[in-house]
Amino acid sequence: MATAADANAMRRAIALAARGLGSTSPNPVVGCVVLDASGHEVGAGHHERAGGPHAEVNALRQAGVLARGGTAYVTLEPCNHTGRTGPCAQALIEAGVARVVYAVADPDRQAAGGADTLRAAGVRVEQGLLAGEAEAGNAAWLTSVRLGRPYVLWKYAATLDGRIAAQDGTSRWITSAESRADVHRLRARADAVVVGAGTARADDPHLAVRGVEGAVQPLRVVVDTEGTAVRPGARVLDDAAPTLIAVAEDATTGLPGVVRIPRDGRGLSVPALLAALHRRGVRSVLLEGGPTLAGSFVAAGAVDKVVGYLAPALLGEGPAALTGAGIATLTEALRLEIDECVRIGPDLRVTATPRPQAATAAPLAPAAAATAPAVSKEH
């Protein structure tokens, strides 16, 4: 049975894992803490970047000989796979660790099996400590492995009555400078930032991360079905970050960095778009597009978390945050569980997750593209 000391060590490992958000993709974020035989912390580390040492290796290097006979706490089952780095299960065995406690089993069949290897070597292995917290911290990678598509976080900014712009189209700025800075922190944790043609036309967005030290710039993606919204000289085409323009297979465009996606209904296929991003190593998407693009993702069951920035203002008229989601009656509403409500400057940031019964969706594989909801042409 886990003790308070076990829980404290695992909680520290989870906090360490979070340091890798935004820099380890397409690998998971992982943290590890090593206690010696008497229960004192002697090593700690996290996976810092893809291709670099894993969390266990970093922690064991710090612990040195003091790891022998001790316990390692890891947020994800130690890998059993030799890739750009060696298997962590073997590293733990060679270090003489007597006990390994991990939070979440590795769903990647190529790397799984570390627990069995440890047990076969006589190491005591325990699974499941603070699994919920560890899963939440590693949601993007786990979603990508389990569903075969990137994890999608939809972010929007609106007034308290849900308007994202005034009746005349003005929208800068609904929320505060503090909220806008917070959005850059979300971008810094994402592999890709996605907007639609409507946003590209109206705002000429830049989409790169600003004000976050050491940030790895995400891939900037514009869903431009007809290939007409992004013009030469657009800010998104500068060299601040890589850019991908998603257009229909039959669209005519001379822009660089184009990926062609099958049409579906009135726009592009959501599953095919996500599959194309997944093939490029994208494991997490920050969806920043307009209400129709968001509606397409919601209708496809491809929104994993929602972050709404609500300004203490009322407009009464103007576009709402979400449209075209295929929700016709109250019983079809996408119900959410509120994870967090915090003040960001004068605004309120609400973070919510679709309830399991509403969020469960089949993997968005390319084969599903013919029947899945479309990405809107306009947004």
Describe the structure.
The chain has 11 helices and 17 strands. By secondary structure, it is of the alpha/beta class. Strand 4, helix 4 and strand 5 form a beta-alpha-beta unit. The termini are far apart.
The end-to-end span amounts to 52 Å
What's the number of helices? 11
| Shape category | elongated
Helical proportion? 25-40%
Nutshell version of this structure?
The chain has 379 residues and is of the alpha/beta class. It starts with a helix and ends with a strand.
Describe the secondary structure blueprint for this structure.
Layout: H1 4-17, E1 31-35, E2 41-46, H2 55-63, E3 71-76, H3 88-94, E4 99-104, H4 114-120, E5 124-127, H5 131-137, H6 139-147, E6 151-159, H7 177-189, E7 192-196, H8 197-203, E8 219-223, E9 243-248, E10 258-261, E11 263-264, E12 267-269, H9 270-279, E13 284-287, H10 291-299, E14 305-311, E15 336-344, E16 347-354, H11 356-359, E17 374-376
Parallel strand pairs: 3-4, 4-5, 6-13, 6-14, 7-8, 7-13, 8-9, 9-10
Antiparallel strand pairs: 1-2, 1-3, 11-12, 12-17, 14-16, 15-16
Helix pairs in contact: 3-4
